[in-house]
Design brief:
It is a multi-pass membrane protein. It is found in: Endomembrane system. By secondary structure, this protein is mainly α. It contains five helices and no strands. The chain has one domain. The N and C termini lie far apart (about 55 Å).
Length: about 120
């Protein structure tokens, strides 16, 4: 039972990883509508960012974005992208061995945390 559960979880994680890459590629495709491109860039950048909105060291809540928010964002973006475009990029992503890395998204989240810390210290000091 637990072996099957672990196997299913690994397969789900591989599918999410592939779809993040496919969404990233779809954001650059001229056949993708502009609103889907904008959301795709945000979702893919957040998914590959090493910095989370909710840090993983916070018990339970730290993994909410990894388990719920990212997959829901991917599902929404996939629905907005034309089926032929997403299927083409899913095939490409499945063949790829490396996932895209977003240093810009990491910078945005680091800046966000610094601004929040500065605001909190200004309020409470």
């Amino acid at each position: 039972m637990t072996i099957k559960l672990v196997s299913n979880a690994k397969q789900w994680a591989r599918t999410i990883k592939r779809d993040v890459h496919a969404v990233w590629l779809s954001a650059r495709d001229p056949c993708t509508p502009w609103f889907a491109k904008a959301l795709a860039v945000v979702v893919a950048a957040y998914a590959v960012s090493p910095i989370d909105l909710i840090p993983d060291f916070i018990p339970v809540l730290g993994y909410v974005d990894d388990i719920i928010i990212v997959p829901l964002g991917i599902m929404l973006v996939v629905r907005l992208i034309p089926p032929e475009v997403i299927s083409e990029h899913r095939e490409t992503a499945a063949k790829a061995t490396e996932r895209p890395v977003s240093r810009m998204a990491a910078g945005v989240f680091i800046t966000l945390w610094i601004v929040c810390a500065a605001l909190l210290s200004a309020i409470y000091l």
